[in-house]
Amino acid sequence: MADLIIRDLVKTYDKTEVLHGISLDVKDGEFVVFVGPSGCGKSTTLRLIAGLEDTTSGEIEIGGRVVNNLEPKDRDIAMVFQNYAIYPHMTVRKNIGFGLRSSNKSKAEKEKRIEEVAALLDMTPLLNRKPSQLSGGQRQRVAIGRAMVRDPAVFLFDEPLSNLDAQLRTQMRLEIKKLHQRVGSTIVFVTHDQVEAMTMADRIVIMKDGHIQQVGTPQEVYHKPANTFVARFIGAPSMNMLAGQVKDGAVVLAGGNAVPVPVAVPDGKKVLVGVRPEDLHPEGETSLLEGTVSLAEPLGHETLLYVETPSGEVISKADGRTPPGVGARVALHALKENLHLFDAETEQAIT
Amino acid sequence: MDNIAGKKSGLTWAVHLATLLLVLLWLFPTVGLLVSSFRTADQISSSGWWASLFPTERNVVMRAADPDDFRVADDDLFVVSGNLFDEDPTVSVATISVWGTSSREISQYTAGETADLGDGATITVQANGDYEWRGPDGEISGRGQRVFATIEAAPEFTLANYEQVLLSGNSTDSMAKAFFNTLTVTIPATIIPIVVAAFAAYALAWMEFPGRALLIAAVVGLLVVPLQLALIPLLKLHLGIGIGKGYLGVWLAHTGFGLPLAIYLLRNYMVGLPRDIIECAKVDGATDFQIFTKIILPLSFPALASFAIFQFLWTWNDLLVAKVFLIDATGETTVMTNQIVELLGTRGGNWEILATAAFVSIAVPLVVFFAMQRYLVRGLLAGSVK
Description:
The structure holds two protein chains of two kinds. The longest helix of chain A has 18 residues, at 166-183. Chain A is 23% helix and 34% strand. Chain A is of the alpha+beta class. Chain B folds into three domains: 2-51; 55-153, no CATH class; 163-377, Orthogonal Bundle (MetI-like fold). Chain B is built from 14 helices and nine strands. In chain B, strand 2 and strand 3 (77-83) form a beta hairpin. Chain A binds chain B through residues 50-52, 71-73, 77-79, 81-89, 98-99, 101-102, 130-134, 136, 139, 146, 150, 163, and chain B through 274, 276-277, 279-287, 290, 294-295, 298-299, 380-386.
């Protein structure tokens, strides 16, 4: 177990730069999730850490050791791949034991270690099966077991759950998190699913186009998004953005409503007011804007309302029992502390 | 897209028909060869192989046993009894339907009836050939009674051809030596190129080095070079460096001629293996050599097997390369293809020997094909990636 430090990591393919200087400190035992849309460079970062690609510039340090020029096998890491990458011709036992082949333990010790890992993953009865006889979730567990068996300093997960069905994904998510609590190893986890990121991470790294957008705990990235991209990316359905202009310490929205904002902003500045659907209700104190319900999506415990307003279509969450019907005219309310203010030009948060 | 709705498209039938046609096209000569190899020269010249599979009806003339030696006294008469077929080695298992005692009326009696030969002599013939020829002293003498019969003979086969070709030790007919010579050529000529090509294919598929693409292009280019171009220069080279004509030379030649296709096939297969698996092995601490032996080779088994079948078949059936690089004036190293060519000269009319020799030479490829064909169609990758 060890820290992982990335400094100014740059990666170019031919002449295209895909990572533009990534820096990150991962503490010992931390569960860090890289999340972002596809093509944002999160998997590339992981492959650079693993040593499957050469870095163009920058440094990667694992446990106080710069590993840039080391082979993957010398970096003291283990990786779980999206496609499981199980060796199809070997039994589960041999698959899990493969990483131990180069270690200088005795045969009995290796067997013991395999049994330990299998027990930890509830796979003891499956040890003598071939991968083709396993279900998707079991295969994924074999892949995790194969990573665990060597007890590496850092675990790397490359979208390991994206091939599983929804139910299994939720279950494996929980299992990985429990595993992390029990084993306490450093984990870097890549996913494009923000729910996975929110539920599993100690810290989330949100990436876009080869840049880190924000690093923070799930609470931080949800409640204090650093820019409009993070604000929109985290949370489902995504945050409503209302264009407006600052006047006398309040933001005047397109509909004419003035919204008081907590921070001091110079007059005349164009801003975006962000408000999450779950913070925007048809009932409440401060009326934000008014509009007509164009579509309602009942989800049981609540109903999503798509409301046409002068600021464009916004999404609001209403009570599940007595929601306003389609065509109803509603006033939408939000608490002041749930409003997020962004600079309309730089798209950065104004705090 | 017709078949999505559960309706078979016309193409399916075309495929079935074409398959059937190909199967028949292949099966007819092969079965014919096999059947012919179990028949005698007389049978081959008198009827086609297809006729030999069913009982045949024909007319024969048989003779009872010589009364001077075999007659037995019974009261005041003499009796000669026995089986007509015992006297005639060309017919072993047959049934007599009708028979007669004169060439003018060969179907005068049915089986089991008794014919009156005059002067108190009679003969009774059963369907299975048993006869009883009975009469006074004067009649049961001289030569044995002639019987004209219409018989239905069961199919009849012999292993004598195989005995002649494999076991007789007759140097002009013997395929045994040539068989082992062919094996001596074929087995190393199959294994060496596979081993070399597997290494090369892994390097070309998964190791990064400058000039890799050019090398692959060169291999593809070599695929279209006809081997006849290289025969004479290569033989000169072999003679020049002292290999001369012999097994080593023919192994090297087959290896060289087989390598481009082997590398091409194996590389294409290996490149299709999931990258994740190889990267995972790298992270798990395997060296390139371990990845090759532990991961790539087992997973490439279908490709290795299919190339092995190809290479085996065409080195087995090869005549040209063996003639150029192997067979010398002593004839000690002759292979089966060459032996058959020689048989065509020395035993050109003996179809039974030629058919047997040909079948001996195709037997092994048939066994190899049927034993290995499942590897041609089986994917070993089931379960590795979703």
